[in-house]
Amino acid sequence: MSIDTAPTVSATALDATSGAATRRAILHRLLMTLGPILIALIIAGCILLAVGVDPLAYYGYVLEKGLFSPLGIQQTLSRMAPLLFLAAGLIVAFRAGMWNLGGDGQFLLGAVAAAASAPVLIQFMPGWLALFCAFIIATIVAMIWSLVPALLRAYQGVNEIVTTLMMTFLGTSLANVLVKLVFRDPGTTVPQTRTLPVEDRLPRLFDTTITSGLVLGLITIIIVHLVMTRTAFGLKLRIVGANPRAAVHAGLNVSALTIAVFAISAGLAGLAGAVDIIGVQGNVRADWNPAYGLAVIPAVFLARMNGFAAIGFVFLLSVLSIGGESAARRLGVPNHFTLVLISIVLIVLALAEYVDHRYNQSRKA
Amino acid sequence: MALMSGSASSPVDKRDIVTLESVTKRFPGIVANDDIDLSIRPGEVHVLLGENGAGKSTLIGMLSGLQQPDEGRILVDGKPTQITSPRNALALGIGTVFQHMMLVPTLTVAENLLLGGPWWQTPKTEELAARVAEITSSLGITLKLSAKVSELSLGEQQQVEILRAMLRNSRLLILDESTSMLTPKGIDELGALMRRLVGQGLAVVFITHKLKEAVAFGDRISVLKLGKKVGEIPPERLRSLGEQEIIAEIVELMFGTQGADPEAATHPDHTASFAGAAPLLQVKDLAVAQTENAPGLSSISFDIRPGEILGIAGIDGNGQKQLAEALAGQRAVAGGSIWVDRTAIETLSVGARREIGLRYLTDDRLGEGTVGTFPVSINFFLKQVGAAPFWRNGVEQRGEIDARAAQLAREYDVRTPSLKTPVGRLSGGNIQKVLLARELAEGAKVVIFNKPTYGLDLANTLASRQRIRDTAARGLAVLLISTDLEELLSMCDRIAVIADGALVGTVDNVDDARTKVGRLMIGLAA
Q1: For A284, A333, B150, B159, which has the most beta carbons within 10 A of its beta carbon?
Q2: What is the largest distance, in Å, between two alpha-carbon atoms of chain B?
Q3: Where is the chain membrane-spanning (chain A) (predicted)?
Q4: Would the CB atoms of A251 and B362 count as touching at under 8 Å?
């Protein structure tokens, strides 16, 4: 026993120092994230001033609508549901070094599949089973849609950035055509799918308007995070992402893993679409394309593909987009100003990263 | 030593191009360079000799503007100067040829040489051709400007890099581990080229960890050890001593022990106890199709008994890597058969071959052997992801992994700040130890070593060779692929020579093996 204690003591001592280092690292990261966001808000404020809008009023409205008003915060939290699924899908892909930028096409096809199947299924089976089946169908449709880029990447080495982006154009158009020609609700003049009755949609949380999709999204992204960091499957994907040649050398079946990554990533994007339709929207209009997929990419990057951090950034994104829409309406700023704001945040964050890196270098040198 | 440095600073000497005065450079946890004085003069090949981690790369980093000294100063032409960036270094006339090639393989030689010119001007191709002709003729090398860099041999690529430095009017040329990728012939050519460069009044700093090259090519040798300069042999002394005496002196400086050339050792005979046993590895008529950038293999046949080391000699790029990859399952086989312990494996996957007991220790340690950004502990188990006891039901068992990793690190003497350190931050020797531990730890029957000591310092080279000998002594079959003939002669029982993707002959490693293998390598029958 006495022999055993000595190494244990030194091991805990080591852990303690590394614990302090970790805390310092987290603090540094928080500073490096929140500082630039503050600076970005100031820059965006200057732009608002230049076009004659009071920035404080704008930010006030954003916060009031996106965060502090009861209705606004409920909308914000509901908006998070599809974004969390999309973020989970991107985390899988990015950690495996595959740039699935086709999220929007996969999202819309999943949405249309769910919108088309849920109202029909609900007539044959219990509500929960119908919704579950609609989720499954949406997932499968999106997975199949990702098969082309997946096979091209796995067996021909074709760059998936190009193929997924091209497939997203096709996917949005196909979704549009499907709504107009195949799944159109004959009862309305607007081209849209049959509307799922509110009572059949995903239940709302307690007495609010927040969709329970939020809970599903949170569970999903946390599971994805744990799978990627704690399991053999996740490690295999990360090996493929970090060094594909090492993956071959270690005997991993890189082609099969590639296809799996695309299937999971696209499947989660399809689920995102289904959650938004079955939880909130109820139907798909032919021209509907919220482009969540592209909006989530920066959030996932800023979170460094960490699931927990991604939840935070997705929340921020939701506040900005819900609050921004309202503030834009009230102050006569173009609706796109939200995007301008988000892009300024991104650029400042990237600059801060660069400056931090240079500072570290020069401190070492 | 004090006497020598005293005479070095006397005014009679040629002026230094670059002088380092008490330069110190620290990184977290280590002092990479500790109070180093160095004078670099025109017309001299100044060899910096030292093991991995001795501080050679850091020193070069400071000379080429990549890093700044923490203490001390750098004088250029006698004036204290801050070398702030690689561009600044070039402007001062300091050109560096790094260990890893820095050319664009898809561009031609001329295009590579023109890179970095002012962007608003059309590249002056004729002017370039004229200047290149002038320089190459004076150096006695020939280079086709229109050739694609990817078509050139590594030696030729190096000449292009040297030429590029010359075109920028470099007065000081730094060659960082330039011989590690070259064939013996390429090394000799580089040596001759260095002589002509210093003949034209340039200064050359030549970094190496090979004693023989240092002695053969250097005018002045500085020996670094653990960040300190432990000695310098000036030109007068180099000329007055014989090669063996110098080597003995350097070994004394580096290791503090007098000894004969440690690179030469006699091979022990360990087959006796396994004589008569059935071969563990049998390869028959193995063929691999040629690809765009790799030679094919044709009718490769050999077998290795337990306890035996079969060497594969040959000039680099004759199919060694393809042979190793075909055996390991990383490269598709066009024909032939491979048996490990009487199981045919040629159709099995990489993982299945490993299960049977085949191990492949790659020469590309960071490129495919490890995931540089992953911790040391995970890299031990890169080929066992998902296997018990380190993963249960697919879930990582961190305790098991860390315990076993700590054990392996101890057994194989892996020196790392912690098991969580990214493996890419370790020195080459320690990365190799991680690979050795991973491949040799358990269940191995046949081990393929591809250039196991390439790029390692002397201590790690000797340690790796001992591991290989021990492996064979345990009764495993060992295939040792190496471009270092001395290594093969000191280790192997038999040596096969590969040329153009075929085995041209196999020689028993007895007295006249050196001549026979040499004759086979240059294309004569043994």
Answers
A1: A284
A2: 76
A3: 37-59, 80-99, 105-122, 129-155, 161-183, 204-228, 254-279, 291-317, 337-355
A4: no
Entry pTM: 0.73
Task: Domain ranges for chain B, please list them.
Answer: 2-99+170-255, 272-357+443-521
Residues constituting chain A: 365
CA neighbor of B104 nearest in space, from B160, B52, B60, B62: B160
Residues present in chain B in total: 526
Q: Does A136 contact B at CB distance below 8 Å? A: no
Would you call B362 and A252 a contact, using CB atoms and an 8 Å cutoff? no
Helix (H/G/I), strand (E/B), else coil: A278: helix
| Fold entry, domain B2-99+170-255 | Rossmann fold (3.40.50)
pLDDT one-digit tens code per residue, A205-264:
887 888 889 999 999 999 999 999 999 999 999 999 999 999 999 999 999 999 999 999
Q: What average pLDDT score do residues B20-39 get?
A: 82
Nearest CA in chain B to A227: B395
Q: Which whole number is the average pLDDT over B75-99?
A: 87
β-pairing verdict for B172-176 and B297-304: unpaired
Say how far apart CA B95 and CA B116 lie, in whole Å.
14
User: Are B24 and B44 contacting, i.e. CB atoms less than 8 angstroms apart?
Assistant: no
Give the structural domain span for A183.
89-294
* Count of CB pairs separated by less than 8 Å, A with B: 75
Please list every residue in chain A whose beta carbon sits closer than 8 Å to the beta carbon of residue B353: 251
What DSSP line would sit under A352-365, residue for residue? HHHHHHHHHHHHH-
pLDDT tens column, B397-455: 999 999 999 999 999 988 888 899 999 888 888 899 999 999 998 889 999 999 898 77
- For domain B272-357+443-521, give the CATH number: 3.40.50.300
CB pair distance less than 8 Å for A253 and B349: yes
Is A148 within 8 Å of A167 (Cβ atoms)? yes
pLDDT, tens digit, for every residue of A19-57?
677 788 888 878 887 888 889 989 999 998 998 888 898
Minimum CA–CA partner of B360 in chain A: A249
pLDDT score recorded for residue B181: 66
Residue B67 phi, psi (nearest 5): -135, 160
